[in-house]
């Protein structure tokens, strides 16, 4: 036990059987440099359905879709009160609204849901599409690009900063902070990113609390809970979490999809040929999302209970990683294969239940616009010879670099 502690590993609790222990580090997954989702699928195939790892403070991992879907919906046993690994230092402000359980959660979530209704997202579409067109047109004559910086991050950050009415000139600074927040391998790095984002947002938050507008930031920082406006500290936490989500996750999904299409010309040509077939494109997008899950959120066990043949104890942490659902061969046949004609692709990329991602409609719209406008202008592209895509694992998996070329 002493050797484990010296190596930075948590000692195995008495209620965890020795045969359930696996050495799994979500910040360093074997094989992830080539294909993150395939690396997770390999863990799924070689491990118990639920196992315990001494890494990142020590926690359980659920690998099968059946269990993950239960854990996403059952907040009474699997609470969202602590969602990151390793856990943040004691006293760290909770991430609003993600680290709040129902029914309190609904009151914080409501303004975000109302701001991202399908009808409102449709109103944004013209602007989103123009950003995609401008970026693709600028890149097309160059014959190459670093896709993450030149396109994948451009689309969501333009859209999101427009929603919150924050200057686009600040995007480079904000993206750097977002990277540390979602893929920082230590609690100190992630906490530093939260503090940096909070410090950046504070003057904007104070201005919107003094003179609210009709933008998303004004709605978030003036949430009314039981007749009282949330505190400034809560407003900072809320705005910080939403900004991180808006800046990083959509960019990550777009980059994963671009990487897949660069490596799979047959699938790319299928999309090019049927890009105007709305039903086909909608299903193809769900299939691409299924294959390229990226978000991870942990849970904390609320009380002692047995789940299947596992003994959970109050305070245990568990990682029901979303992407395991999409690559689960008990749910999807040949899950690592992408089949655009697959009926009703099953995934949990946007979560389920009370905490399902309120930005899912906007994310799907941005992915669709990316495919439509990019493929119409740059239908043939591949990985630049001599380069390798740079992938990263963490609480949100992502693509850090993707060099593409085209005729």
General description of the model:
By secondary structure, this protein is α+β, with helices and mostly antiparallel strands. It has one domain (2-405): Cytochrome P450 (Cytochrome p450, Orthogonal Bundle), CATH 1.10.630.10. It is 48% helix and 10% strand. Strands 1-2-10-7-3 form a five-stranded mixed β-sheet. A three-stranded antiparallel β-sheet has the order 4-14-11. Strand 12 and strand 13 (398-401) form a beta hairpin. Residues 1-6 have low confidence and may be disordered.
Summarize the model shown.
It contains 15 helices and 14 strands. With 407 residues, it is of the alpha+beta class.
- Give the overall pLDDT as a whole number: 91
Can you summarize the main beta sheet?
5 strands, mixed
Total domains: 1
What name does the CATH topology carry? Answer: Cytochrome p450
Question: C-alpha Rg, in Å?
Answer: 21 Å
Protein name: Cytochrome P450
Family: Belongs to the cytochrome P450 family.
Organism: Rhizorhabdus dicambivorans
Pfam family, one: p450
């Amino acid at each position: 036990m002493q050797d484990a502690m010296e190596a930075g590993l948590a000692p195995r609790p008495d209620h965890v059987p020795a045969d359930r222990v696996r050495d799994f580090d979500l910040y360093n997954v074997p094989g992830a440099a080539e294909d993150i989702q395939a690396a997770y699928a390999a863990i799924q195939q070689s491990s118990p359905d639920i196992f315990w790892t001494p890494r990142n403070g020590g926690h359980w991992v659920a690998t099968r879709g059946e269990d993950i879907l239960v854990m996403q919906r059952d907040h009474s046993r699997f609470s969202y009160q602590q969602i990151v690994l390793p856990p943040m230092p004691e006293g760290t402000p909770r991430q609003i609204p993600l680290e709040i359980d129902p029914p309190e959660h609904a009151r914080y979530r409501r303004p975000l849901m109302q701001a991202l209704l399908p009808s409102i997202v449709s109103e944004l579409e013209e602007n989103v599409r123009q950003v995609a067109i401008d970026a693709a047109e600028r890149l097309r004559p160059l014959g190459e690009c670093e896709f993450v910086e030149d396109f994948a991050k451009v689309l969501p950050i333009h859209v999101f900063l427009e929603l919150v009415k924050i200057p686009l000139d600040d995007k480079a600074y904000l993206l750097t902070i977002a990277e540390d927040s979602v893929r920082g391998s230590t609690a100190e790095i992630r906490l530093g990113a939260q503090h940096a984002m909070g410090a950046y947002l504070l003057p904007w938050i104070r201005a919107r609390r003094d003179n609210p507008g009709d933008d998303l930031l004004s709605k978030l920082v003036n949430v009314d809970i039981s007749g009282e406006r949330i505190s400034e500290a809560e407003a900072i936490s809320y705005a910080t979490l939403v900004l991180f989500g808006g800046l990083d996750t959509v960019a990550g999904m777009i980059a994963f999809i671009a990487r897949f299409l660069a490596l799979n010309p047959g699938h790319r040509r299928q999309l090019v040929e049927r890009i105007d077939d709305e039903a086909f494109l909608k299903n193809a997008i769900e299939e691409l999302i299924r294959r390229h899950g990226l978000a991870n959120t942990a849970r904390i066990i609320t009380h002692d209970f047995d789940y299947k043949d596992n003994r959970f104890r109050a305070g245990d942490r568990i990682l029901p990683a979303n992407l395991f659902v999409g690559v689960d061969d008990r749910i999807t046949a040949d899950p690592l294969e992408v089949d655009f004609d697959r009926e009703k692709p099953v995934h949990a990329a946007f979560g389920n239940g009370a905490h399902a991602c309120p930005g899912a409609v906007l994310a799907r719209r941005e992915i669709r616009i990316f495919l439509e406008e990019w493929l119409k202008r740059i239908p043939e592209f591949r990985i630049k010879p001599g380069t390798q895509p740079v992938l990263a694992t963490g609480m949100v998996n992502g693509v850090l670099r993707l060099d593409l070329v085209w005729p």
